[in-house]
Each structure stands twice: as structure tokens, then as C-alpha cells.
Amino acid sequence: MKEQQTQQPQMSQQQSQMSQPSQQLSQQQMQEQLQAALDRLLLANDPAAGQWLGAFQQSQEAWQVTHSILASAASLLASSSSSQPPQGMSPSANALILFAAQTLRSKVQLQLSALDSSARAALLSALFSLFQSFCCAPNQHQVLLQICASISALLLQSPGTAADLEARLAAAMSAAEGGGGGGGCTDEQRWSVGVVTLQRKHVFCLELLSHSKFVALLLQRASSLSLSALSQSQTTPASAASGPVAAVDPSAALSLLHKTLRCLFAWVRIGFLTDLLAADTWQSHVLPLVELAVDSLQEPCLCEVAAEVVGEMASRHEPLLPAITPRLLSCFSQAAAAHPDAFPPLASAASNPSSSAAGVSGSGGSSSSGVDEEERERLVAAFASAIADVGLASPAHVVLSPQLRDPFAAAALRCASVHSSDHRIAISLLPLWSGLSEFLSARVNSSSSSTTPPLTPQDAAAVQAILLAALPVCLSHAKLSTVVPGGAMGDEGDEEEQAEAEAAAEDYREQLEESLVDVMRAVGAGNYLSTVAPLLLSSALPNPQQLLADMPAVELQLFASQAAGQVADSDRPEDVAWACQVLSAVAYIASGVAESAQSSIPPRLQPWVHRAIAANVLAYLSFLPRVPSIVPALLQSLAHGLVPPTSQGASAAGARQAATRSSNSSRASEQATSACAAALCALCEAHNTSASTAAAAASASLNEGLVAQLVAVGENLHLSRLQPKQEADVITAVASAVSSLPPAHQLLALQRLLHPVLAALQALEQQPSSRSLCEAAACSFTRLALLLEHIRLPSPETQRLDSQLLQCLQQLPPSLQSPELQQQAGAQPGAQPGADRTRGGEGSGAIQAFLLAACWPHLQFLLSLPSSSSSSASAPSLDRDALTTAVAAAARCLSPLATLSGPAFLPYTNPALSSLQTAFSTAGPPPSPLSLSACPSILRAAESLLSLQAHATADHLQVSADQLQLSASLATSALVSFVSAPACTALKSPKGAEQHPDITEALLHFASSLLSLVPPSHLASDSSSPVLPPLAHLLEVAARGCTAAHRGVSSSSFSFISALMTAATQQASSPSLQSQPQSQSQQVAPLVQLCTAHGPLLSHALVAALLGPNAVSRVQKCVTLLQQLFHVCCCAAQGATPGATAAQAAAQAALAPMHQWLVAALSSLPPGFLKAGEAEAILPAWLTQLASAPPALTPSANEGERGNTRMLRRLLRSFADSHRHTAVGA
Fold first, then answer.
1. pLDDT band at residue 381 under the 50/70/90 scheme
2. Whole-angstrom distance, CA of residue 456 vs CA of residue 454
């Protein structure tokens, strides 16, 4: 205890001394305190020690103390043996030396301004002296790097010493090379200051660019020392070494050479060779560096950085290509001779790609040259990168010289033929083939006035031969049978490795497609296809069994033929012949694939084949009208591609294995189904377009078979695993095909397409608590909505004249019958519609009646399901999420059904609105049956029903006034119900619109449609109307939404306010109000009262909208709403009294409330937001232009009124621009 009590005061005393570095202590005492603080920080992680050390680094005395520590260490290093660390250099002392070097470096970088010029010169001399001591010391490499960094920073910030850079660095190099601290210093240590200094080119490269010659000499000197050390290590045995240097470490020499190349790369990138190439002595300075970079390609540990240097030299300095290219080809020959396994001969590699793959990415072992597979692949990749960069830098240089062209092409092809797991070697050479193709196309097609002369026929043929030779080499990497471990695609092996190989092949193919298109344009379609896809141009195709036996090769040719289709033009006669031949061959292959058994093609290969066929359909789509007979075969194959591969009758183990393969190859399957869906849609659209222009008799049987296949696809669509976008494409194609059928066939096709949908809905009605059945019903309604959106039905007159349609109606099952449908079935062909015109007799057809009879009962059941489950305690519990999804899908399906049915849906409008209203009332937070995500779909469906009613009224259908009043009452009651529902309770909060943007947007759009479509006289006849409180609530929500960042909420808010004020002005001028007695005519319309009561809120919202997010884009909307608000004020002041004099007086009276509201809105802004007197300056101009402008910019406004409106818009825009950077909430 006593020891602890005596130790504690000592520790506290030491901490008190360390609280601030004392300026009264000697340097020796400071070093001791530094050592103690550093030990406490490193060993005990003492925060007080860290703070003390940080304070020391900022102090002025740190300059002298750190230099003293480094100088003492340098003296110890100079007096000791170079092979053993000096006495007293413990790990703790080494940490202090490194800390001193780091502190000195940071002070030079950040606090050099504290030293005058003489002190900087002395510091630079001291740093060079320290460098000469530490560059020869063992285990002090990190300290040496800090000293070098200090020299670099000092040279940068001392312009007066930059001129002496060459002399000082040369003196330092000579001193280090002379020994300075002993003969034990290695070449890497001697030259590390030069390398480190040059590597920091981003710090002071501008200072050193004027010393390019010295930089080149320094790099040459470093490289020559490294190469001589390597040569000595290879020729002199370690036992024969003598002298102060016992042995030369080759790894150290290679490390320095790697740093030298990296440094050279950095300096070439910043352009230091530019001045050297302009000098007369450039060969003595530059050529050694070129030889260094190119020769280093043969060393596996240097080849990657050497390839970067060669590529940078070739791309930036074209004059160097005559020196680079011959040496590059010579080094390639030497490397190919030294490593024959890495560079297989071109003939064997092209004929047997798997052998070259085994040569580089084999199972293991090392070659006779002592280089393993990884190093060999790195070596080939480096040569491939350098060859590609040289060829891209100047294609003319390598292909127009007969001495260079053949060896260059051979070297490029030999590198391209080497297979690797990630295809990086082949990918690095793809830009070369594209560049040569562009060069050939440009030179062959160049005009006489062009600056570049055209190629001679001999040169053009030579370049074309190179490209044609490169095609099979490039495609060999894309062949699927060579990328899957174990051989063929169907072999069993490591599934994960197969999936990785397929992913690599897919990535390679994506990059290969662009190069294939470039080559095809350069060599021509005939030469291209005869090289990559001879099967597709063959006049005698093999039988399907032979095709299936070699399906990987067939699939590769299908993949290659896509490029030709992308550049083919159906208007060029020379393209039509070969394109139609390719299409016919693709259809023949597709027919064989579709008709073959599932086991004939390996499951992993099936999606690739289907995708290739779909890609060819899309590529040659414009040529399909010329060969219509192949459409069914293509369609059948695309339909097979939509369904994932399965094996019928397989065992349980086989099924599990197929499931595993399917999960691992999900990427290929998804891409195949997506391509097939897109091709199916495009194929049907193109065929329908061509069929409409061709003779109907010639294509009648073909169309029937085509549509029958498409209907089968749609009927089995629930069995496929398609993404929503893919399903939409397929359903669009099916709907397009069904739309071209006669009425009777169309009815039968719809009956088949609706069968799986109705089956899923009937199953849900029997078990409404099943989650899976709810999800299936949601998917069925989604597909049904897409079908109804895209299908086109015959006119009712055409349906009534079709006798076959009536026969089909009579054969429908009783479950699909309805009174309207029975009436249609009992009518005679060509009979006129009955007298019951309100039930959809006029303007409706049998197919519309069939759709309503088939779909409406299920829609009504599903929309009422949430309310029935919540109202009955004995009802089974429903899955909330699944039911929400199903109800939202049913609501989305209601809109296209009503639009497609047209007038036939009018009798169902009121029940549909009631069902939507009931479903909406059950939505809300848990435990409500529905979640809030279903509300937007319900509201949008209700809006579409309102539009349908309005259009029916506008078409002058015989709809009674009582029915119109009933529909208007139901619409307004729906609005009241929607606003008072639990789902809209959250909108009453200040941030409710932002928290529920979808509901807010949909509800405001519904209310806007109601205000626009329902006559104002039916909205609110007096101030006690029940619709006024919901409208007032929505007006408050819209006022807050005007400044919302959500564009949908903002736009719907402006639209609702505009619609409400438009309805108010219409109600004020309605004949029913003007026809009232004089005593009652002075009463203000209820909607006008509503708007004027909320005038302050609207004014504040519009001012805030001018100052909120996206303010400039809202200026026009604010101008319109201010005009409308002013016009509402005029209506309130004028009442219903007609006459121009009363209107002028009302306009003057309306300025008073407008002025009062705008003053209040501007006064509510944050203090200091407006300039002093700004509100008083802008309001008179606003009100003047507002009073002289029309209520809204209409076509009837004269030119003066339009000018006033433009002036008001200009004023508001100027106000918004001046306060753009300050946001204000409503």
C-alpha cells in the first residue's frame, strides 16, 4: 500500500509536468520527456500523453529537438557496424526516432512559413546530411521515407532552392553511392530518395518539369543499377561473393526496378517526355527508358507496370512508336520462346481452344521455365495490353508496314487465343479489333478530298484478313462448352464454379457484341457470316438431331449472327437476301428446339439458346414481313423460352438437382425470359402491322395458328416465373393478337384467357383466409388489368352482325351468363338494340357484356371482403398484407374494365363506387383489415369511374335527371366518406401530406375530378351542404402541399385549388343562382364563401410556394391561382348582380382583402428574410397588375390582358429568383 501511495504522487507529478511542453528544459530533458510520453502512449494508451505529444508537435522548439534526435541517431549509425544495429537503439528508441522524423516532416509541410530563407537553407542541408546517414542504415527505411518527404516538401515551398535541385540531388546520390556510412548500404537505399521524390509528382511536378533531363538520367541510373544487380545475382553464386557486400538480393533489385517503372509511368503521364522529344539529344535520354519499359514485359513481377508504361508512351507520344513496336515484337518472340506453355502456337490454339485454356488456367503445376500458371497469365495479359495500346495509338503504323503487320497480327492473335477464367486477356484486345475495324472502314470509304488517303486494295485485304482471323479466336472464349468446368454444359460438377463461369461468359459477351458489330461493318455481312455463322448461310441444314447434338456450337453461331442483324437495312436489296436466309435458318433451329424433348438440351444451356433466338428475332425484326411463314416456329420457340426448363417424370433427386441448377443459373434464366418476352411482343406487333397491309386471305390460316399459340401462352402465363415487365410484354403481345380476331374467335380467346383468372378467384372465394390464394388472386387481377388495357374490341355494330358470336354466347356456361348477356344471345343477327338504353343497350356489345358478367362479381366480392371480415366476429382471419395486395389489384383492374366496357358499365358505376367506398373505409393502421398501401389504387379507380360518368353525359346518352342527381350524390358522399375515413386522418397533421404522398396525391386528384365533372349546382346548394367540410379540409391539405418537395403532391395541390376556385366562380355565375329573387340573389355562393374564408391560408401558401423548393417552376401556377383567388374575391363582392359597373366596383372592392391577405403572408416570413421596405415596394405593383389582368389566361383574352399577365408573371419570377436560396415552409 505504501508503494502504491508513493507511486501515485510520482505519476501525478509526471502528468502535471507533461501537461504543457516546457520551454525552460534542455534538449536532453525534452528528449527524455518525449521518450516517456511516447512509451506511455504506445504501452498504456494514455490520452494525456497523446495530448502532450500533440502540443509538442505544434511548438516552435520541436524544430531543434527533432533535428537533435535525428542527428544523435545518425551519429550512432555512423559509428556502428552496418550489418548490426548500434548499441542503445532499442525498439523504444527506434519509435522515438520515427516520431521525430514524422514530426519534422509535418512541420515542413504545414509550418515552413515560420522559418526565414537562411533557416530553410540550413534545414535543407541538414536533411541531406541526415539522408546520407540513414540511407545506409539497416531497418530504418520508414525514417528514410519521412526524410525524403521532408526534402520534397521543402523543395516545393522554397522557390529559391528549386534551381539547385539537380546539383543537390546529384551530390546526395554521389555521397550515398560513395559510402558515406559504410559499404553495407544497398542500391535500393541509395536511390530511394530519388524514387520517393519523383513518386510525389503530384506535390511538386511543376518544379521538376523543367529538369526533365535530370529526371531521365536519374531513372536510367536507378534502372541500370537494378539490372546490374539482377545480372550479378544470376551469374555470381552466393558462395563466391566477397567484399563488403556479401550477396546481392535479387528481390530488392526487382523492387527498386518496379518503383522505377512506377515512377516512370507517373512522369510520362504528366508529360515530361514532351520536352525531351523536342530536343536533339532525345535518343540518349528517352530510348533507354523505352527499352527499359519494353524489356520489363518479359519479367512476370514487372510486366503489369511495364505494360502501363508502354501503353502510356504509345498513346501520348506517337513518335515513339517506331522505337516501341519492333522492340515489343522482339520481346514477345523471346517471351514466347522462353515460355512456350504461356503462348501456344496460333494454329493449335485456334483449332483447339481447350488446349490453350489448359495451358494457362490448368489444374496446377509449373512449366519448364519455372513460371507458374498465375505468372504466365499475368505475362500474357501484359503483352496483350501493350499490343492493344500500340495498335490503337496508330493503326496505320502497324498495318501499313509489311514488316510489322504480320508479326504484330500473329502476336495479337496468339495472346487473344489464350483462355483465362475471367477472359481479361481477350477483353483487353477487344478495343484493338474495334480500332482496326474503324480504321479500315474510314480508309476504305474516304473521299478524294479527305486528308487521309484511301487504302490500297492490298492493304485493305490484309487488314480484313486480320479481322477475319480474329473473329473465331474471340468467339472461342464465348462458347459455353469451354467456359464450364468439366466440359459440356450438361456435365455434373461444382455448381458454384459453373455459375461463376457462366457469369464470366455473360460479361465477356456483353463487351464482345460491340466489337463484333464494328468488325461486321468493316468486313461486310457476307464475309462476317461465312466466318462466324456458316451454318445459318448453309443451303442444306442438318437434321434436328444433329443440331441438338452440337447445340453449344449452334448457340454460338446464333449469338454471333445478332451483330449482322443490328446493322442490316431492310431497304437495301443486298441485305434482304442474306437476312431472310439467316432468319429462315434461325426459325428452323427454333422449330427443332421447340419440338425436341426437354432432355435433349442440357438444362443450363436452354436459357442461352432461347435468349439467342429471341435476340435474333429482335435484330432481324424488320425483315420478318418478307418471310411470314417462319413466324409460327419463332413464336413457338419464344413461348417455350418463357417457361423455365423442367424434366417431366424425373426422380426426386433429379428434381432437387434441377432446382439447384435453376437457382444457380437464375441470371441466365431471367435474361432469357426477358428477351423472349420482349421478342414476343415485338414479333406480334410487327406481324399485325404487316398482316393489316397484306391480303387477308393469304394470311388467314397463318393468323389463326399464330393467335392460337399466343392464347396458349397467355392461358399458361401463371405457370411461368416472369418479372412484371416481362409479363407486361407478353400480355401486350397476346392482347395485340387477340384484337385482330373476328368477334366470335375473340370471345372464345377471351374465355380461354379468363379461365385461369376466374379459377384463382373462385378458389379465393371458397377459402378467403388463404394467403397463397390472395396472392394468386392479386397476380390474376394484375394480368387481367394489363389484358383489358391493351385489347381492342370490335364495335357493337360488328358484334351484332356476327352470327357466330351469337352461337358462342349461347354455348357459354351458366356461371358466365347475365341478363344483358342473355339478351344479346337471344337477339337476331343484325337486330336493332332494344329500348332499354339505360342498361347499356346502345353502344354496348356482347363481348363487353361477357367481360362484365365474368369479372364484376369477383371484383365486387374482393372489394367487399375486408368489410365483411371486420364486421363479422365469426369470419375467418385474413392475412392483412396479402388482402391489401389483392384489393389494390382489384381496384386497378376496375378502371380498364370500366373503360373497355364503355356505356355498358354505367349501371355498375354506382355499385362500384359504393364498393370502393366500403373498401377504403376499412384501410388504416393495424388492426384494420387493409393497410394504407391499397388507398391510392382505390382512389384512382373511383376517379376513373367519375370520368366515365362525365363522358357518358357529354355523349348525350339518355340518362335521366334523377339518375344524374343520384350519381352526383353518390360521388359527393364518396368524397365525404373518403375524407372522413381512418386512412385520411393522418393527412390532418402538418406533415401528413409529406408522410403519405401517394394517398394525398390520389385523394386530391379524385376531388379535382369531382369538382371538374360534377355540375356546381349539385355540389353545394347552400352553406349547410355536407360536402363543404371535406372540401375545407382538403383545401387546408392542398395549401400545405403547395410547398411539398414531392412533385406529385405539389402538382395535385395546385390542381385541386384551381379546380375548387373554378367551381366557385362557375357556381357564382350559374343560372340557378341568378334566377333567384333580388332579395336572395345578393347571397354569396357557398363555394365562394369557402374560398374567401380560406383566403389568408391560400395567400400564405402561394407566397411560400414562391419561396420554397422548385420555386421558379411554380411561378406560372402561382400566377394563375392568384388571378383565380382575385376573381373569387370579385364574385364575393359582386354577388350575382350582373352589369359592367357592378363588376368594376367589385374588382376595386376585391383589392382590399387581397392586399390584407398578402400583407399578412409576407409579414409571417422569418425576421430578416425580406429587406427593409421590400413588402411595401412589391405589393402595389402586384395588385396593380392583378387588377388589370384577366381572371385566367384564356384564348379570349385580348393582347393587353395577356401583356398584364406576362408582367405579373415577371414580377413573381423576379421575387422568387431573389430569394431562391432560402426555403420557407407553408
1. very high
2. 7
532 vs 727, more confident: 532
Position 315, amino acid: S
Angstrom distance (rounded) from CA 245 to CA 224: 18
Distance CA 134, CA 94 (A): 13
Pair 593, 540: CB distance under 8 Å: no
For residue 684, CA distances in Å to 284, 617, 691, 703 come to 70, 11, 10, 10
Closest Cα partner for 287 from 223, 231, 335? 223
- Is residue 183 predicted with pLDDT exceeding 60? no
The total number of residues shown for the chain amounts to 1226
CA-based R_g, the chain, Å: 42
**Ramachandran assignment for 26, one of left (phi > 0), alpha (psi -120 to 50 degrees), beta (any other):** beta
| Grid coordinates given for 1096 | 389568408
Cα torsion 989, 990, 993, 996 to 10°: value is -50
Rounded CA separation 863/1094 (Å):
36
For 112, the grid coordinates are 515552413
Greater model confidence, 779 or 1196: 779
pLDDT digits (tens, 9 = 90+) for 833-851: 443 333 333 446 788 888 8
SS3 state at 930 = strand
- The pLDDT tens digits for 949-982 are 777 665 544 556 666 676 677 778 888 888 888 8
At 189, the pLDDT band (50, 70, 90 cuts) reads very low
640: pLDDT confidence band, cut at 50, 70 and 90?
confident
Contacts of 902 (CB under 8 A, 6+ apart): 843, 844, 848
DSSP bridge pairs for 372: 366
Q: Which of 296-305, 367-376, 591-600, 900-909 has the lowest mean pLDDT?
A: 367-376
Question: Residue 868 pLDDT > 70, yes or no?
Answer: yes
User: Among residues 335, 340, 259, which one has the least CA distance to residue 299?
Assistant: 335
Distance CA 640, CA 737 (A): 18
Cell of 1043: 410547398
The answer to whether the CB of 1124 falls within 8 A of the CB of 1194 is no
Yes or no: say if 254 and 226 are a contact pair by the CB < 8 Å rule.
yes
* Distances 1207 to 871, 953, 1203, 1214 between C-alpha atoms, Å: 59, 40, 6, 11
**297, 335 contact by CB (below 8 A):** yes
The owner of cell 444451356 is 605
Distance of CA 544 to the CA centre of its chain: 41
Check residue 235 and give its pLDDT: 56
The pLDDT-based confidence of 515 (bands split at 50, 70, 90) is very high
Asked if 780 and 760 touch (Cβ cutoff 8 Å), the reply is yes
C-alpha cell at position 429: 484486345
CA atoms within 13 A on the CB side of 1181: 13
Tens-place pLDDT, residues 803-830: 777 677 766 766 665 555 555 555 544 4
**540 vs 534, 620, 637, 662, 1022, CA distance in Å?**
11, 21, 21, 35, 86
pLDDT attached to residue 952: 65
Q: Which three cell numbers stand for residue 727?
A: 409479363
Alpha helices in 1014-1114 (DSSP H): 1028-1041, 1047-1068, 1071-1074, 1078-1081, 1086-1093, 1095-1107
Average pLDDT of the segment spanning 148-157:
71
Place of cell 434441377: 658
Which pLDDT score is estimated for 904? Answer: 81
Are 645 and 607 contacting, i.e. CB atoms less than 8 angstroms apart? yes
CA distance 564 to 529: 8
Please give the C-alpha separations between residue 204 and each of 4, 91, 208, 1013, in angstroms, as whole numbers.
Answer: 56, 34, 7, 73
Sequence-separated (6 or more) residues with CB below 8 Å from residue 1182: 1158, 1208, 1211, 1212
The string of DSSP codes covering 967-995 is: HHHHHHHHHHHHHHSGGGGGGGSTTHHHH
